[in-house]
Amino acid sequence: MQTLNVNWQPDKTAATPIYQQITNYFQHQIARGDWPVGAKLPSQRKLAEAFGVNRSTLITALDELIAVGLITSNPGSGMVISGNHWSSLLAEHVNWSQYVKAGQFKPNSHALQKINQFETDAVIRLSTGEPAPEQFPRALFQKAFAHLGQNLTSLNYTEPAGILALRQQIAKHLVKVGIHTQPENILITSGSLQALQLVSMSLFPANATIYTEAPTYVKSLHVFQSAQTHLTGIPMDSQGLAYWQMTPPAKDEHAIIYSIPTFNNPTGIVMSAERRQQTLQYAQEHRLPILEDAAYQDVWFDQQPPQPLKALDTTGNVIYFGSISKSLAPGLRIGWTVAAKPVIDRLTDVRMQTDYGASSLSQLVLAEILADPEYETYQANFRKVLAKKAAAAQAILHRYWDDFATWQAPTGGFYLWVRLADAINIPKLFDLATARNVLFNPGSIYDFAPNQYVRLSFSYESSERFERGIQILTELIHANFAV
Amino acid sequence: MQTLNVNWQPDKTAATPIYQQITNYFQHQIARGDWPVGAKLPSQRKLAEAFGVNRSTLITALDELIAVGLITSNPGSGMVISGNHWSSLLAEHVNWSQYVKAGQFKPNSHALQKINQFETDAVIRLSTGEPAPEQFPRALFQKAFAHLGQNLTSLNYTEPAGILALRQQIAKHLVKVGIHTQPENILITSGSLQALQLVSMSLFPANATIYTEAPTYVKSLHVFQSAQTHLTGIPMDSQGLAYWQMTPPAKDEHAIIYSIPTFNNPTGIVMSAERRQQTLQYAQEHRLPILEDAAYQDVWFDQQPPQPLKALDTTGNVIYFGSISKSLAPGLRIGWTVAAKPVIDRLTDVRMQTDYGASSLSQLVLAEILADPEYETYQANFRKVLAKKAAAAQAILHRYWDDFATWQAPTGGFYLWVRLADAINIPKLFDLATARNVLFNPGSIYDFAPNQYVRLSFSYESSERFERGIQILTELIHANFAV
Ligand SMILES: Cc1ncc(COP(=O)(O)O)c(C=O)c1O
Ligand SMILES: Cc1ncc(COP(=O)(O)O)c(C=O)c1O
Question: Where does the record place the HTH gntR-type domain (chains A, B) (predicted)?
Fold first, then answer.
């Protein structure tokens, strides 16, 4: 086994952090083939000396190199070059700033990665934006499976825009919220997230400004932030987006509105009917096309929310995104985009090149379920239970948190958007809570600046487990912060 | 209703085609808000005069503007500005060259769009790369549905890399082809197409060269061509990729190999065991990471093909793409990527931001089916039928086409790669055939230069319908070309 000689030192006057100069150097040496796989590295002490850096800087660099697979560290035999050519490319791509530059993907943030991993384990998930397993309508699915089992003659690639029977059912379903459309104006996607992705890849002009509510769900994604666009937060009042605070684009600039007018994630705010009209008109006047994310459209408690922007749109200026994830089952991965025909055609075309369409199985099962008259009964019950859980969750918060927390009562959706007293350090609380197997979403994930909020989901966990989670958080808050 | 005044003329000395200058002008006027929705256009005659262009140029421009929805033409009332802000953005994005520049998506080619549309109709599809509906194992699916119906407790977002039970089944399945791997080295995607997409978005360095067999399936996609990379075709001989014809990348350049070593689509060529070893070694020496597309791995006729490159890969230099589309059901949209852990982690991360994972329903059903001992029986029978259909298809070609066509007998896969006599104009034959409801894929879709080949699928249609299709093509050939 060959041991490597190192005769290079980082440039301490350069803007690039030293640890990163070191990872770049490793990556470069391996990518060029100068450091072959299997070669042994000098000890940490010797390396730090050779580079003229302190141990902790070196270790930061080595950790990252281990994470991307360029080196492995074996107790006994020390560190060895293990990277193949992919890990070398990976190391290059891990560099965030490069991604942003290239309009490509940024790695998910640390907190989100942690949540995604944890969400599969047996922890109390006040973070999870999904329907509760208890509400899963197994009987509806069983019926659909049985029917499908009898009739299925193949499961081949589907029509590019999605199976017609499903698009017909969606069109019917949309009439209930005031949208009158045709199957040819509908594109079925793998969840509405994919639709956002498709729009951002194929319709966003470079350097466009995307105006959105602050805080907003999309801030927690990298979809819009990766496409050479500027995501700009606009405050809300109790009626929703304060549209007049936008700067209208100059004649040769482009801007787009992305809005969650109904049960905004994370705040739960519903844009009033009047504000909807005004926003539409403002958008029309200032050449601002609108993306309307209606993921929570069907999960109201007692009263149907105002009609979607799309229902009021006479010029095709609104692209509407619906989803079955919040009212039935996210695992189906089915969403629908409603737009003018040329827009649908274009998105369909790009979508075919992305993954050839959504699962036919999911599409067929959903078409069966939507056509089942019992779906209405399920929905009504689902909403009733959800409203009860929202009330129970708020009663629990009043019991434990009244001294240091405030929130607005939601009228639909899955979340409580809770402001905590300034004394509570939320990133610290997050770490303490995950160590105790309780997950919540720090509000800063959704915002354009750090804030004092947490997002608590009352939908996924039972009220008993919600209370247990709050008890643990309460303990942690009292033990660690001066409230 | 306002009628527009036009005082602008295209620059006849500019490089941009005149019709495109006109569409750009319209798009610009509408995007800036200068031409409001509802405004009436002057007549075609007046417009042509005002622009100083001939009618046919004008009509080309108007057709494109109608296609993207910027204007509508109503008999009686003439042409009206109908575009909203989205259609205006669309018009901008329809410009191919801009896409390529931005590393974004190019519209699907005309022939492919046509095929995609037609594939949903009642035509003879010698183009379709799918298993025949007759071979669909309904009983296997019914069993899986019944079992699932009893056990399903929810359908929520899945583990980021895919449901563990499925990854375990895939790992077991892969042992049969010589790949020994762990669930944590596997990422489940929405078909293998999505995996190609993910890799190209998150691991391709800018300006990299992607070496691939010529002809190749990926040439028919825009995935790799959109990512600021250079797709470069390398010829094959009877043993597969002539790897020695590649130019090794210089020290500071990047290159990647994409190969379909087993039943190459479209040619059916299988890379020999020896060539696999040599290619791997060459790649290792010249710092070329490898993408191995194994979509047809399981669809051999009589004899299992040589082990995948991945089975021989000791350094993690190969990323392997498998799929259930060709051996069971493309409508499940399930593929699997096998790679070193850091690569899987990175792809998983990007994938979560793209669509939150593949349909849980598809994943669960496939896990059930792969675990069913009868899956083996199904597979064996599937292969036998496929081999028979391949033989029947060739007998048919011998009967009708021996005078003007040649091909190599395939040993697996779905396709005959048929060279037609030079006298046959393939684009013309394609148009004539679609008019007669027969679809085939022109070979040029897959190649780096025009060629005299067609790809005929013997998998999808029955041998009777295959023959009918060939009869119609034979008629067309005799009536139109001097063979
Ligand atoms: C506002 C909003 N939009 C879209 C989505 C994406 O949902 P899906 O891709 O499952 O349809 C979510 C999920 O959390 C959401 O909260
Ligand atoms: C070589 C090859 N790879 C990948 C695919 C994509 O298949 P899927 O996305 O259905 O797995 C195909 C489909 O035609 C193919 O021929």
Answer: 16-84
Q: Quick check: ipTM above 0.90? A: no
Among B223, B325, B362, the residue with its CB nearest the CB of A361 is: B362
Tens of pLDDT, residues A80-116? 888 778 877 777 665 433 332 232 334 445 555 555 5
Contacts of B58 (CB under 8 A, 6+ apart): B19, B22, B44, B47, B48, B51
Report all structural domains of chain B as residue ranges with CATH numbers, in order of start: 18-102 (1.10.10.10), 110-130+381-479 (3.90.1150.10), 137-371 (3.40.640.10)
Considering only CB atoms, B316 lies closest to which of A84, A131, A283, namely A84
For position B96, what pLDDT does the model report? 32
* Least distant ligand from the CA of B197: 2
Ligand 1 atom nearest to CA at B157: 10
CA distance A309 to A307: 7
Could you tell me the distance, in angstroms and rounded to a whole number, from the CA of residue B281 to the centre of ligand 2? 26
Q: Which ligand is nearest to the CA of A414?
A: 1
Closest by alpha carbon to B11, among B23, B26, B27, B22? Answer: B22
**Which H/E stretch holds residue B293?**
strand B290-293
